[in-house]
């Protein structure tokens, strides 16, 4: 049987699963049925002049004319919940396969690419285009490992690889069966501890909708290796940050599986930069308490947390934890943790950096990360919360505070809503992403902790307009936020 190209295979698969006949698709597209047969068999591709119209038409036909059972299968395969999103996902997948086949035709003269291709040199855009293989659209189940000298790449290319493309990720779906382990090198003495740390924090946030693990190993230096287990692999040597030499692209399952196992062997717990943890684990395992009593507290807030909740508001918010499934942690444990935090912030030395959006967003939305559960405060509750924070700043002279007001970097629109809690003991991150409630990451490796500490000290020592150091000016700003909340309170009655 003659081998078919990837686009034809996908088209046939979609029509079979959805139980859409050739003549139905032909009627939908206003094409002769013979064209549909040739596309499915691989004897012909849609014309480049009409590719977008045809592919959108196919996507619409599969969703609107497909069987209910078939659509249920496709909804699961693409991990979406609505027919509109399914139509978009199918179109995206068809377009990716179509472009892949056209590129193969251009490079090799055939719509069916060889199992293995070799390129003496590729620019980074060319490498990234080939790395974004159509198999990555199959989000139901993927197992990926990469060995990437990410920090050695020119910044624009690392942003593309790490999906740090400005602001929050557009795709807010959760993909629990997509597993991605990346190994990078953090030993470069030329790291920019502001830019590179913000980059890593945003990468962790943007990748949080999948099972993403980030490791460090010297073996990543100068490498650009990306493999999907049993499916696809691309390897190359990074040169000068903007090109790859000796690039091999393979769709051979044996090659990709062998390379996958080789890289996976480097993904040890000792090399893991941060490890995901739930708030329940933090509280019941006493890591939360250890973080509060550890010396040399350096805290960065990109959103408001339970740390500044006054006693009466704490009691009001507790029922929401039970409603949202936090019943494994008892009242006494939570009360003890709250009291410990209160004493810590009232009496002992702490250095705190606030990002300005933590205040302005809170004034408008009233959202507080209350033991890693999002709760929304009423305007009156917001006033009690912000007053409590203001009193802490006024009464505890050991509390050193600075306010980051403005963009730290201009290279990309980073998220400023993460929290970083650094101590000489346990340190952890709160990513504040919306698709996965377990957004906490404990710092697991010395390289990551060193980056975060250098990042904090750089910001703390900034002598720029964007970092406000005057305590009275910060308290005055908080009073301004208080006035905003009062205005909202009056409007909402």
Helix and strand arrangement:
Layout: H1 6-18, H2 22-29, H3 33-41, H4 51-65, H5 68-77, H6 83-108, E1 116-123, H7 124-131, E2 142-148, H8 155-161, E3 175-184, H9 195-206, E4 210-216, E5 223-228, E6 232-239, E7 243-250, H10 253-264, E8 274-277, H11 279-284, H12 287-293, E9 298-301, H13 311-323, H14 331-347, E10 350-355, H15 356-365, E11 367-370, E12 373-376, H16 379-395, E13 399-404, E14 419-422, E15 428-430, E16 440-443, H17 446-460, E17 467-468, H18 471-491
Helix pairs in contact: 1-5, 1-6, 2-3, 2-4, 4-6, 12-14, 15-18, 16-18
Q: What keyword list fits this structure?
A:
493 residues; alpha+beta; Endonuclease, Chain A; 3 domains; eight-stranded mixed β-sheet; 17 strands; 19% strand
Helix amount, in percent?
40-55%
How many helices? 18
Strand content: 15-25%
Cα end-to-end separation: 73 Å
Question: What structural class results from the helix and strand content?
Answer: alpha+beta
pLDDT below 50 for ≥5 consecutive residues: which ranges? Answer: 164-171
Number of domains: 3
Shape: globular
Query: Strand order within the widest sheet?
Result: 8-16-15-14-9-10-13-17
Regarding quaternary structure, how should these chains be classified? single chain
Radius of gyration: 26 Å
Mean pLDDT: 90
Count of DSSP strands: 17
The biggest sheet, with number of strands, parallel, antiparallel or mixed sense and barrel status, is: 8 strands, mixed
